[in-house]
Amino acid sequence: MEKFTVHSGTAVPLRRTDVDTDQIIPVRFCASTSRTGHADALFADWRAEDGFVLEEPERRGASVLLAGQDFGTGSSREYAVWALQDYGFRAVIAPRFGDIFRGNSLMNGLLTVVAPDAVVERLWELTEADPAVPVTVDLERLQVRCAGLVQGFTLDEDARRRLLCGLDAIADTLRFEADIAAYEATRRPALPVTRRPSAAAR
Amino acid sequence: MGTTLAQKTWDAHVVRRTGGGEDLLYIDLQLLHEVNTPQAFDRLRAAGRTVRRPGLTLGTEDHNTPTLALDRVIKDREGRRQAELMRSNCAEFGIPLHRFGDPGQGIVHVIAPELGLVRPGMTIVCCDSHTTTLGAFGALAFGIGASQVEHVLATQTLPMRPLKSMAVHVDGTLPAGVGAKDLVLALIARIGTAGGQGHIVEYRGEGVRALSMEARMTLCNMTVEAGSRAGTVAPDETTYAYLAQCPGMPQGAAWDEEVAYWRSLVSDADARFDKEVTLRAGELSPYVSWGTNPAQSVPLDGRVPAADGFATAAERAAAERALDYMDLKPGTPLRDVAVDTVFLGSCTNSRIEDLRAAADVLRGRKVADGLHLMIVPGSARVRLQAVEEGLDRVFAEAGADFRVGAGCSMCAALNEDRLLPGQRAASTSNRNFEGRQGRGSRTHIVSPAVAAATAVTGRLSSPADL
Ligand code: SF4
C-alpha cells in the first residue's frame, strides 16, 4: 500500500450528497480484471454531462476531493477507490462515508477524512473562490488545513499506523498466525465446510 | 447489562484484540463471485501466498451469466474473462465453484442458504454489499472489498472496527398484500440511506417473527440500503425448520446440540441498542421508489413529492436531480406512472416464494400489451422448483419471459439484460441509482406482488387494483 503522511494539493469541490459507487464508476467498467486503468471511468456518466466540476480546466491535477454527505454508499466495488486513485486523488474529505467504501479506501492508501458539514461547506467555498488554493491533509498531525482553516480529524490507530508506514495489512495480520491457528483449534466441529459440486450433481 | 445477538457472535470470533481500534475476527465462510475477485487472486499470487482454508470458501458465477439459455457463452469479452478467471483461480487454489449450468449455481446470496452453508452464529463475508442477506439466519454477514477478500483468502480473518447496534422493532403483523419488501422500503424511507451507517441492525418483534425465511432474507438484503453494515434476525423455530431441510446438516444428537447452541444466540432481555426504531406493521401498505436512491420511496397510494417539501438543502437538491433524471412531475399519483419493463429477480426477490407471489397475481391474467415482464430465477434450484410447481406454465400463459439461466441479470446489467436509455422499469431489485439497470435507465423498486400487478396493468399497481 502507498504510504500516506502529509499531502497537499488542489481540490475538486463536489457539491453532491449520496454519491454512490455506481456514480463513482458505472458498472459497465467493472468488467475489467485489473486494479489500474480506471481513470477515464471515474464519474464517467457525470463527466459526459455539461458543466461537471471535474471537467473544469482549473481542476486539472487536483488531488483532494471534497464531497457531501454519504460519499461512497452502495455497491462494495473497490473499483471506486481504484478509479479515484488512478485519476490522481490522494484524499477525500466528506461529512460521512459509506462503510464498505471507507474500509476499501483505507486498505489502498486513499485517505478518507470525516469532517463536519460546516467545514466541508467552508472548504467548498474556499476552493470555489480560488481553484489554486491547496488543501493539506496531514495524517501525522491529524489535521486538514486550507487558507486559514485548521480542522482536526480522527482515525483508528490501526488504520493510521498502516497508512503512515505503507504497511501491507495481510503481513500485519500474519504476525498473529499462531493466534489464528489456536482459534481454529477451538471452532465448533459442526460448522459447515464447502464441497466441490459432485460430478453426479453436475 | 446484557449482550446483543450480534455482539455474542462477534465476541465468539475474536482472534485477537489489537488495542488499536480493531478486532481481528475469524471468518467462518467466504463467498466469491466473478466480479471483484480477479484482482484479489492476482495479488495473492504475486505475494506468493495461498488460500488458508479453501474448504471455508465457495465460488459461484452470477453477475455476468446469460439468462436466455444454459449453453450460451457470455457475450461481453471482459465479462467472459472474469468468468474464466473465476474458474482458473478456484481450480488453482482448490476452491469449490458452482459454474454456470451447474444445478447448484445462482446468485451468491441465494445459493449459500440453499446449500446449508449459512447458520446462526457464523461470520460470513463476500465481495458484495448485499451479503447482509444472510443475517436472516442470525449470522453476522458483511460485504467487503477486493483487498479484504484477499486478506480473508490469505488469513481467514479480517480486522474490523467494532460496530454500533440498532434495533428495528416491527410491532404487529403486516396486512395481507404487504410484504418484507414494503416493510424495508418504509424503513429506509424513514431513516434514510445513512440511517443505519456504522450499525448492525437487528430486526425484532412480532412482525419479524411472523416472516418466513425468504421474507427475512429480503429484509436483511436491503438493510445495506440504509447504510448498515449488517442486518440480523435472531434464530427461532422458523429458522430451524428451514435449516432442517437443507443439505449437509448435522443429524440426530449432533443436530440437537446445534439447535441448543443456536437458541443461545438471541439478544439478552436487558441488552441495550445504540439506536432504536419502531415500525407499526399494521399501518404499512405497498411501497414504491420514485427517485434515484432507495430512501426516495413512498406508499403506492401516494404521489410523486415536490423537491421543496424536503427539510434540508441537500435533500432538496437531491430530489430535484432525481425528479429530473426520473422524468417525473411532482404531484403525479404513482399509480399513473407507466412502465415498459418489469424485472422480477435479484438477490432481494428471486426465491421461490417471490415467484409464487408473482404467479398468484398472474394466474389467469395477461401481461399488458407491449410490456416486457422478465422473470429471472435466483438460482438453478429455484428455477427447477418453479417448474416442478408449474409456475413456468402460469408465466408462459400470462405472456411473461421466464428465463432459463439464473443470476443477477438486469439488477446489475452486466450481462446482456439491460434497459435502454430512457426506459422505465418496475424492478424487484434493490437499487434505483442513476444508470443502475443500464445507462440512462429509470428504476422503480417494488415488491414481487406489485411487480406482477404492474405487468398486468402497465402502470404501477398493486394486486388489489386488479
Ligand atoms: S442480484 Fe444485484 S444486488 Fe444482488 S448480488 Fe447480484 S448484482 Fe448485486
Structural summary, described in words:
The complex is a heterodimer of chains A (202) and B (466). Chain A has 8 helices and 8 strands. With 202 residues, chain A is an alpha/beta fold. In chain A, strand 4 (91-94), helix 4 (99-108) and strand 5 form a beta-alpha-beta unit. Chain A is globular. The model of chain A has no long low-confidence stretch (mean pLDDT 94). Chain B has 466 residues and is α/β, with parallel strands linked by helices. Chain B has helices spanning 5-11, 38-46, 77-93, 108-114, 146-155, 180-191, 206-209, 213-221, 237-244, 252-263, 313-326, 352-362, 380-388, 391-398, 448-457; strands spanning 14-17, 23-26, 29-32, 57-60, 97-98, 123-126, 140-143, 157-160, 164-171, 199-204, 230-233, 275-280, 287-289, 297-299, 341-344, 372-375, 401-402, 424-427, 442-445. Chain B has a 5-stranded parallel sheet. Chain B has a 5-stranded parallel sheet with strand order 17-16-15-18-19, with helices on one face. The radius of gyration of chain B is 21 Å and the shape is globular. In chain B, 61% of the residues are buried. Classes of the chains: A alpha/beta (202), B alpha/beta (466). Chains A and B meet through helix 4, helix 6, helix 7 and helix 8 of A and helix 2, helix 3, strand 5, helix 5 and helix 10 of B. The complex binds iron/sulfur cluster. Residues 62-63, 107, 128, 130, 346-347, 408, 411-412, 429-430 of chain B line the site of iron/sulfur cluster. Chain B: Its cofactor is [4Fe-4S] cluster. Chain B: Keywords: 4Fe-4S, Amino-acid biosynthesis, Branched-chain amino acid biosynthesis, Iron, Iron-sulfur, Leucine biosynthesis, Lyase, Metal-binding.
